[in-house]
Amino acid sequence: MHGPASSGWLLVALCAATGAYCLLRMRSRVEEQRRAAGGEALMGFGMAAMAVPAAVFTPPSWTWPAYAVVFGVAALHALWAARACTRHLHHLVGASAMVYMAAVMAASTGQHSGHGGAGIPLVTGTLLFYFTGYVLLSGVRLIPAATAGGAVGWGDRPELARACRLSMGIAMVAMLLTL
Question: What are the sequence ranges of the domains in the chain?
Fold first, then answer.
């Protein structure tokens, strides 16, 4: 993504840490946690890779279409899963946003370094509006959840999962702002 290198590295660290925690959640005893964690780990690591400052590493031109394909498949999976549970609609929007950002970056590959494409203002604005609302709502919901007796493993902490989702939402807003 385009923008200052220091904020890019902060996004990389935030998204990579979120992806790593989501991998830990895949070992949870709670089936719902395991189910959601895989897609969230993909989003976290994908966002970390996209946030690497362009001044440090300029990926080859085939990278952006590859991101679009990977997140397009993730969007189709979320669409399929949304048939049973509407909670997957957020994953659909997130994966679609990643496809959109990859397409914008692919379109800007032929332009001079540092002059990326701006995307479609209506789409970018709509995604910014959605993710800003998501971040605000997630922040309100970040109150620690009560656990049902006994020791709880790191992968079974719902408040940490919410914090990771909030982090990814904040990172998505930051990435969309750089378009």
Answer: 5-146+154-178
Measuring CA to CA, which residue among 106, 104, 96, 103 is closest to residue 76?
A: 96
Write out pLDDT tens, residues 133-153: 999 998 888 765 555 555 556
Q: Give the angle 179-73-65 at the CA atoms, nearest 5°.
A: 45
Contact 67, 98 (CB under 8 A): yes
Q: Pinpoint the alpha helices (H) of 26-152.
A: 31-50, 63-81, 88-107, 121-140
> Two tokens at 35?
């189910």
Residue 73: pLDDT band with limits 50, 70, 90: very high
Closest CA to 51 of 9, 6, 103: 9
Distance CA 91, CA 81 (A): 10
